[in-house]
Amino acid sequence: MTSSTARSGSMLLRQKLMPPGLPSAAIARPRLDDLYSRLLTEHDALAVFAAPGSGKTVQTQQFATREQWPLAWLTLDSADRSASRVLSYLAEGLRPSVSEIDDILGWAFANRHLPAEVAALLAEAIPADRLLVVFDQCEFIAESDASCLVVQTFIEHLPHGVHTILLSRAEMNLSLGRLLLDGRVGRITDEDLAVTLDEAIQLTRARGENESNVSSRLEAARGWIAGVAFGASRDSGGYNARDLDAYLAREVLQTLPADECRFLLDTSVLDAVTLRAAQALCGPDCGSVWRKVGLRHLPATSATDGTIIYHPLFRRFLREQLELDPCRLALLQIADAEYLVETNHFEEAVELFLSLGELDRATEVAERGVGGLLARGDYETTLRWIDALGVERVGESPPLLGAEIAALRGARRLDEARELALRLHTSGRLTAVVEAEDGVIAHVAWSMLWQPKEGLDLLDRYPTSSRALSVRYMLEATSGIGPAMPPQRVQPNETDRLMSWALMVQGRLDELVAMLPSEDQWPPRTPYTTPHPLLGLVWRGELERARALLDDVPSDVKQRIEYDVWNYLEAWLLLAEGDAEGALVAAEFAVAHSRITGFGFEPVFQIVQGEALLLLGRVEEAVTVLSETIEKNRASGLLAYTEWGLTYLGRARLLEDRNQEAVELLREAVEGMTRAQRLLLLPAAAIYLAEAERRLGNEARADSAAAIAYSTSLTMGAFTPLRRALSQFPEVAYWVLERDSTAAAEWRRHLRSFDSTATRTAAVERSGAVFYIQPFGLSTDIVVDGKAANVRRLKVIELACFLSAHPKGVTREEAQTHLFPESDRQRGSNYFRQVVHQLRKSTGLTLRRLPGSRIAFPDDVRVDAADIRFERALAEASNVGGQERLIRLREALDLPVGPYLFASDLEWVSERRFQLDILIEEAELDVARLALELRDFTLARHYSEAALDRNRYSVPAYRCLMESQVAVGSETAALAIYRRACNVLRDIGIEPGDATIAPLLRLLGA
To answer: Can you tell me the distance from the alpha carbon of 133 to that of 572, in angstroms, rounded to the nearest whole number?
Structure first.
């Protein structure tokens, strides 16, 4: 690239990252400056969504200048509907504020993060200093969900002190509704920006115009500043586009020389009219005209380097005039596209050539620009280009064919990527594709995940890249009959997800866990691309760490990226935690999502589904699922997953006492795993085989299988899978310990915690437990099966109460926010884990994990709470009357023995406490009235006084007290109660003559 080309390209970028400048007649608007300041004090961001010409951009620039805000400005245009382009320009705009911008982008793109995730990284990397980030002309991305998500995510992750202003003519497809409700975004509208009469007078003076018609001009423009400035004529009855066009034609074009008019029309196709861009469209001799236009007072602004930015309405007017000559417009647009190519703006050039129908030229430029799209994971745009260019042109372009394979693979459309690769291979054209881009062979092989033999065959036939080595390892690890060796990892890249999966299959748990990000990178600020290394923690038995890391990943991240794989991980973790029901739900989600997306992993996900069904005792269903997945995996040559299915189907046959079938299934699994060194499930398969052989009397074979289980666990450095299998068939452990004294010592040394582990699991999985929460007064506690847990930590009681109020489950984030509202996300997450641990430690109860990061009490535990029981008792009492109602209400009132969670100051607790106080007071008054009806005046006085202890201003309570005294003939006592009521109610402005207290006086016959 020549130096002049580089300068031209960087100039275009600079124009996007510079405020467009102020028109010469711009006026100060202090009332809007104050409004901006106030809203940015109250909110993180400001949405200025108003009509064109309302003064959004000018006012924002003036506000930033007046308040001396450090400014990062990004002007969007029609080419920025691609989220990755928005992200790229945003990163450049933040470069002065974020020193490590290249490191962030390099790492994020290498790991194939989505643009929205990278936007979060950029936001969090901004120092918590004073900075204002402005997105101008957001209307160009309003219909792009992906681009809007970049902006939304950026706002959500901004540090304190950094604010964002969005300027747009159209509403944006982002979650502003939620952000507005959360107080994150303030709003400025056309009504706020409307010009006042004083401002209109100032504007007219600044433009050197006659002030006599300001009022009529303002009325015609209806407060629209561009209408006041440029188009609402004095005699017009109101503003319309023709008024403005007539004004611009008369007052601008007709006053200019012909060469300048021609220049304005021709350059209206440009977003920013630099000298170099103007010369590309109007010829090399247009420099003098460009300078003359820049010096004129037009509806345009000029930057310090002379670049001209037309006012949007002026540019619209010019463009409409140019469109009257469609042939000239087409030639100018082609010249603009060629200028974009010359300055290395290939993506913008392709889009323009496509819009012009210049498909041959678009194809040539796309070959140069598609690499940038793939580098940042913009598969959507890549495939859109491929479709627009057509099968014939793409078929003749090896670079575009390679890009299509890579994009289809990246978009998880594996079947289409595989079919295309095989067609190219069969026709002999794949060689040219691989030679054009050596990395494409990795995408080709990756698309063969479900046909590994085909993938390996292609890898053998074509030159391979370093990335293809990870793909080969994955294919060999899942389908080979011999051991596969992992490649040397040079640097992290997207194929690491395949490598990590293959390490998991082989039981290389230490290497797998080593692929987790370091502690300073976790919790991730943006999503980790694959959860596979967390499975290493699960299989090593580090469940608390695995749960902590998994819970630190936001639920929306799990739903956007590899949703099925995240659910697969959740299922295995839930199984390890003893929650088979939750694991089944997560596994079913994974299977369903994989089928919907066509990703093809359901034969793998069905294996954990089958295991969950077995643990729930649903053996027949498990057999159906496992038989189906074994058949699919056999047909595809996926031996690893076939062996996994055989392992659990063999266990199912053991549960059915079909021992001979179990032996045959498990021998195949163990032999295949041993031969190929696929160790992950080998301890479990070998223990199941030992049990099956023992049942059939094959003692030597049982000993051999048990020895394989033990030695494999030693090799993996993890005994958790072995312990888990022994907890299902403990007779195998007893068999070994009794028969082989030499082995017994080794087994005991490594299985020392086996008995206690089994005991803990039984405690967690007990069914029918009764879990009762007492949240009232000084004696708050949790009672499990009639035995007090003696919980002394308030947060544990708060958590139990919160969950009891949400019997169908609640998201972990929501519970965390309600329990620790003052803590940031990371600290709150840590505190929440501690409280959950304390709940489990105090009560032996493990919370159930549901899809979507939701938690709940286990289904097989009966949960009740004194406050809920109290409300239930009140409801039951309302269905009866008389003495029965009185008895039930008194029994209900025995439950609240004091204030609800009296030591808690949480907002939701205060609301619940207030709600219960009202119910208690109403119940006490109800008892008092019933007692009066039943002529139990002592009881009536007791509950009336109780209600007054709760609310000293309760007129109904005073009435019941007075009625009970009148009923027993003690009018003097009734009068004393009346005076007491008057004195108390006077504190809140109620006098004896007031309508509220007058009925009490009538009780005395006054």
So the answer is: 43
Q: First CA to last CA across the chain, in angstroms?
A: 104
Q: Does position 654 have pLDDT exceeding 70, yes or no?
A: yes
Same domain, 97 and 218: no
In order of 496, 573, 609, 642, 721, the CA distances from 678 in angstroms are 19, 21, 21, 12, 14
Same domain, 180 and 209: no
Q: How far apart (Å, rounded) are the C-alpha atoms in residues 191 and 972?
A: 67
Residue 495 CA to residue 474 CA, distance in Å, equals: 10
856 DSSP β-pair partners: 848
Compute the distance between CA of residue 464 and CA of residue 451 in angstroms, rounded to an integer.
Answer: 18
The answer to the question of residue 161 being in a domain is yes
Distance, in Å, from the CA atom of 666 to the CA atom of 686, rounded to the nearest integer, reads: 8
Region 695-718: mean pLDDT is 90
Are both 838 and 948 inside the same structural domain? no
Per-residue pLDDT averaged across 472-489, rounded? 88
Among 460, 479, 498, the domain boundary falls at 479
Domain containing residue 14: CATH number: 3.40.50
DSSP β-bridge partners for residue 167: 48
Q: Could you tell me if residue 523 is left (phi over 0), alpha (psi between -120 and 50 degrees) or otherwise beta?
A: beta
What does the pLDDT look like over 388-401, one tens digit per residue? 999 999 999 999 99
The edge-to-edge listing of strands for the beta sheet with 810-811 is 810-811, 854-856, 848-850
From residue 129, alpha-carbon distances to 17, 87, 158, 164 in Å are 20, 21, 11, 13
Question: Is the pTM higher than 0.70?
Answer: no
CA distance 53 to 565: 49
Helix (H) or strand (E) segment spanning residue 348: helix 346-356
Q: Using DSSP, state whether 222 is helix, strand or coil.
A: coil
Per-residue pLDDT band for 127 (boundaries 50, 70, 90) equals confident
pLDDT value of position 527 = 40
Q: How confident is the model at residue 756 (pLDDT cuts 50, 70, 90)?
A: very low
Helix 639-655 with 619-636: angle, nearest 10 deg: 160
Q: Please compute the mean of the pLDDT values over residues 340-348 and round it to a whole number.
A: 91
Question: Residues 93, 212: one domain?
Answer: no
Question: What is the pairing mode between strands 854-856 and 861-865?
Answer: unpaired
Which comes out higher in pLDDT, residue 721 or 206?
721
The H-assigned helical ranges of 376-525 are: 379-389, 391-395, 398-410, 414-427, 430-436, 440-446, 452-461, 466-479, 496-505, 509-513
Q: Which tokens in the block code for residue 922? A: 């109403």
- Residue 850 has phi, psi (to 5 degrees) of -115, 165
Which range in 241-255, 505-519, 535-549, 725-739 is most confidently predicted, on average pLDDT? 535-549
Q: Are residues 805 and 849 in the same domain?
A: yes
- pLDDT band, very low/low/confident/very high, at 6 (cuts 50, 70, 90): very low
Mark whether 138 and 17 lie in a shared domain.
yes
- Residue 858, pLDDT > 50, answer yes
State how many domains the chain has.
5
Give the integer Cα–Cα distance in Å for 131 and 872.
54
* CATH at residue 978: 1.25.40.10
Phi-psi map region of 874: left, alpha, beta (phi>0 left; psi -120 to 50 alpha): alpha
Which CATH number do you get for residue 386?
Answer: 1.25.40
- Identify whether residues 109 and 57 lie together within a single domain: yes
Residue pLDDT, tens place only, 221-250: 666 676 676 544 333 333 345 667 776 787
Which residues are paired to 188 by β-bridges? 48
For 494, residues 6+ apart whose C-beta sits below 8 A from its C-beta are 110, 111, 112, 467, 529
22 plus 168 within the same structural domain: yes
Domain containing 442: what range? 349-479
Of 40-54, 209-223, 932-946, the one with minimum mean pLDDT is 209-223
Mean predicted lDDT score pLDDT of the chain: 83
3-state secondary structure of 869: helix
Q: To 5 degrees, how large is the angle CA 780–CA 785–CA 786?
A: 55
